[in-house]
Amino acid sequence: MADLNDGRLDLRRSRARFVAFGVVAALLFVVLSGRLFQLQVVSGEDYARRAAADRTAEVALPAPRGLIFDRDGRPVAVNTPSWTVHVRPADLPPTDRRRILGRVATLTGTPLATVRDRLEAFQGSPFDLVPVVRGVERDAALIIGEEAASLPGIVVQVEPIRRYLDDTGAAAGQLLSHVVGYTGPIDRDELMTLADDGYLRNDVIGKAGVEASFETELRGTYGTQLVERDASGREVRVIRTLEEPIAGRNLMLTIDADTQRLATQALTWGMEVAGVSQGVTIVMNPQTGEILAMVSLPSYDNNDFAGGISAEDFAVYLADPNRPLRNHAISDIYPPGSTYKLVTGIAAMEEGVTTAERQWPTYGCYQIPGAPAGECLYDWNRQGFGPLDMVDAFAKSSDTFFYQMAIQTGIDPLAEWAYELGFGARSGIRLPGEEPGIIASTEWARQQGRSGVFTGELAQAGIGQNVIAVTPLQVLNAYAAVANGGNLMRPMIVRGETDANGELVEAYEPEVIHTIDADPATLRTMRIGAREVITTGHAYNIRDLDLPGALSGKTGTAEFGELTPGGILPFHSWFVAYLPSEAGATDAELAVVSFNYSAVVPGNVSAEVVKYFLQLYYDLDQDLRLDPNDFSLVTAN
Q1: Where are the alpha helices (DSSP H) in 277-410?
Q2: At 378, is the pLDDT very low, low, confident or very high (cuts 50, 70, 90)?
Q3: CA angle 321, 324, 329 (to 5 degrees)
Q4: Which of 104, 495, 599, 606 is the right S-S partner for 252, CB 3.0 to 4.6 Å?
């Protein structure tokens, strides 16, 4: 066999090369060993912290929302456990997306478009849970859980949801919806504004009523948890709670749910008998400004919104011409009619135009000064009343008397006294959507491109017509200020804060906006006139109620709009009243206003509503209601 090494030359090995290689290898070993020592020993803790940070995160821990009680401690807004369906976009197969979302929509009774829109509106991490249906029924939640294997990306969790209750404790929000309001998912614009305050993409926020205006108090302070996440970003477990959440404050309304129920009953009756589509009744304590009842009809059930209302259902509310979502007590303005004669009477006496005792002639039709002969403004009594002083003119509601008072006073002094009584400005009640109203003045005319107000407009302003527009709350608050002796109160809707059982622990103090800068004798004259409205029969038989005091008040009829086919202007109906111990006294603790929109009937339906409310409130063994269509006793029909 041949030797394979035959012919091979052995090269001479270099000792120096071998030594150099060894040195290099040793140096590399030293460097690597040093680096390893640095990573594991010197900086080991730092890198361990970084590795932990990569798989852990701090997440917000929502605080329980504060409860809401009525003034007697009855819960009217509570938190109840509810099932919420979430979608984790990263786990939702694109090829099976429609089937999965469609199944969720079917099981929850939610339109597929709504589920899809809520998912697509989310802009967070694809590993975050996106709430698409809140308030899911238990049976539906269990079925979704059972079908989890065929519904990848769908997660059902128990979360608190708002539940709105009535005076009986039933889940029926219509009674107090405009006062309490509702919560709903935060929208994109709200999030952009509130993100720096700690609001999150899937947060719930107050949208209307006290839920919105007291959002800061009710929300509480969120806590934080440290959670572990896997490599894909999914939450694996909670490591520990870093900061416990602080529950929101519990609030007590000034509203008495029983009084709200009675006011609603009375207004509902009046609207039905007169064929009225919109109405308001507000009850207040004139001494404190506390709102005891605030009814705006038609109403809505705020439970419809607690779980997130569908676009279709919301569109139904928006399409209703009677605007059930609006609080007509503060968010709409109307001509006040003869209730505004309170302003004109005070202005005329305070500006030196007249005294309480001076008599002025009244007319069937008052000739407008400076206008061509025959251009006159009618009194509601086409024969006139003859000479009247302030009390009699207020009691009989003579239009031509107050035309003269307004013209002699002048538009700007008249406007200043309107402002003094709280008109033309928001009252500051802590409810969203309050309107300031419109008061005629020289400045107002200039905003319309004119140098001033026409004399006819001035005369009509004196009886609360033409451009004058106010909220029902403003009317009530002005009369309450006169009733209590001159303090214009800030209307209160929240009485204070409570414990978990609804016991008041911190009362909010009533606030005086200002004291009316009028002679006390002037205010007393108007209080006497308001009593005479009742005793002379101008408000029909309401004087015959067996009430614990001397009911005082004012009727009002306010024309608006365009002529009906019958040749008359439609008109609103007003009645405002308060109950002092005796005529002229300033100790009234109850005041009420009722307003009925386009109440085109012969009688004053608002006076009948207030009458019915007083019968119910004082539990009188009387029923003196008159049918506003024909003035017949309701009990005789």
Answers
A1: 303-306, 311-319, 341-350, 390-396, 399-409
A2: very high
A3: 110
A4: 495
